[in-house]
Structures are given as structure tokens and as C-alpha cells.
Design goal:
This protein is 46% helix and 17% strand. The protein is α/β, with parallel strands linked by helices and 355 residues long. The protein folds into 2 domains: 142 residues, Nucleotidyltransferase, domain 5 (2-Layer Sandwich); 118 residues, no CATH class. The strands form 2 sheets. The protein has a 5-stranded mixed sheet. Strands 8-7-6-9-10 form a 5-stranded mixed sheet. Strand 2 and strand 3 form a beta hairpin. The radius of gyration is 23 Å and the shape is globular. The two termini are 24 Å apart. 53% of the residues are buried. This is N-acetylglucosamine kinase.
Amino acid sequence: MVVGVDAGATSTRCVVADLDGVVLGRGTAGGANRNSSGGEVSASLTAALGAALQALDRTKVSCGVLGAAGSAGAGRAAFRATATRAWADAGLAGELVTVTDLEVAYAAGTAEPDGVLLLAGTGALAALFAAGQLSRRSDGYGWLLGDEGSAVWIAVRALRAVLAALDGRGEPTSLLDAACHHFAVPDLLQLAGDHGGEPELLQSARDHSGVPDLQESRDHAGLRGEDVAQGLIAATFAVAPAALGGFAPAVSAAAERGDRVAGRICAAAADRLLHTFDSVGPPPGAAVVLAGSVLLSPGAVSRAVRAGLLARTAATPRTALDGAAGAAGLAIARITGAPVPPVVHARLTHAPDRG
């Protein structure tokens, strides 16, 4: 048997399979990115491995490939040490291989050795593969320094827009209500009730699209947007940076409903992702694999990126739905010494057999 692990910023997934690509076990646990997940990375890896292997004979595991975000460069040695400890704690003695999340995501989308991975989930980047090896990458520098177009990037810009709307620097946006709901912060209507105001006046101040006129709301209820702003600040700083990405779907939904602010944020995210794709210099005819929640979920960003890729490549991109299965495919290839056959890849990843 082989083991594949995809340790992401918000979740860790594990797949156990045989050499024919038949999945025998699955396990999940919390995030395992040392830069943005918080908590103990080794504990997440051990939990995911244990869940996937609980009904299986662990002595039959010949090889495992563990991939993780944040495990390149300076993080490589640290992740290797952490993975080795988790591997031993899970009672495994087979060969252990550690790679980045890029290899496993690309392998989840295709068995072809040449192509480009465009990823936008908690983080965002593009990676060029040649002869099965990562040859070039662009972005993927983490929530603080990069990851342009990622879920966290979208959420942070939406929250900035909400705060700007509250203090008068920006235009009104329905993202205010969405943010208060998502982060469980009392909004202006709730605060009006708490302070003896008249919520119906606040409701009447909303324009035809449901966006509140904040200044009129404050005038009627005697409230300051600072109350809501400080609540949002406290709530968002209380969670790990990776968790902020959970607000991105609400931003996409607001854009779909016609919110101008949300629409601009989603359009900017798509532009950044396409620019990142262009930056790795994709060769003509190369396979393109999409990964991450932002690109694999319906919405304004995914739609714009797919249209941009189609215009650039004249081909429909493939999708990486299961990074852990991609890691298991890499483990199979390591044992057999040959690329994973298309039929085995399709069985392993539940994707159409492109062979």
C-alpha cells in the first residue's frame, strides 16, 4: 500500500491506496501550515494518518508521500523533521518522502510530466513543471507578503473595504452585513436595538440593492460605525490568518448579487491570478491544472480565470480535487519506477480517464 498526505493551511487530508489506484482509506485533520495554521503540525499529520489507517495493516505500507504548504526553502527541513515524527507516531516503517503542496496538487490533476499548476485556495501561486519536476514558480509567499488572489487575499481586502465604509473612506457595501454575520459581530441593527434605537429606521435607510446608507443609519440611531469596526477588528485578529479565507465565499456571493465593491475585489483577484499564471511562462499546449477552493468553486473569480485561461491556451483546464490522492500517485510512481498510468490516475483521483 501507499500513503498520500496533503497538509494544507486549513485542513490535512490523507489517502491510503493500493498500486492499482484503489483507495482503501481516508482521513482528515486540522491545518498543518507552520506559517498560518497555528497549533501543532505533527499532531495534525498524526491524526490524519491514524484516521486513514485505522482499519488497515500498517506493515503493508511501502511508501508515503507527504506534501505541505510552507515546506519549501527554509521550511523544508522543519517539515521533514515534523513529518518523520508523525510517521513514526503512526506506527509506519515504509519509505517517507516529503514534498511541497505544489507537487501533490499538480499530480492530483494530471499524470502528464509537463504543465502548469495554478492554485488559489488559502494561498495562491503558479508552478511550472517540466519532465515531472518543478522548474519555476511565481508567488505563494504567504498571506502577509503575497498569495495574490487567494481566499485570504480576497477576505482581507473585503474587510478593509468594510472598515472604509464604516469610517467614511469608502462606499457602502453589503459586505458589512456579511462580515458581521460571518464573524459573529453585532451589526448596526443589533446595536440600535441594544441602545434603544429604532431598527426600522436603519432598515429604511437601505437603498434598492440592500446596502445600508451608513451615515443616515448613524444619524437616526445615534450610533458610531466605530462600534462595529472595533468588533470586527477583535474578531478577525482572534483567528489564525488562514481562517480569514473562510470569508471569501461571502465576498463572491456579494459580487454575484451585484455589490460593486465585492465585484471589484473579485475582478482584481482574477487579474492577479492570471498575471501569476503568465509569469511562469507556460509553454504552448502544456496541461493546466487548477487547484484550491477559489478556483474550484463557482463564482466570479473562477469564472473570470477560466475564461482567461481558455483565451490563452484554447484548452479546458483540468482540476485537482484531491491533493492527497495526487500524493498517493507520486508514491505509486516511486515504487513502480514509472509514471502512473492514466487509468490508475483516474481511479485514484476519481477523474475522467484522459488516456
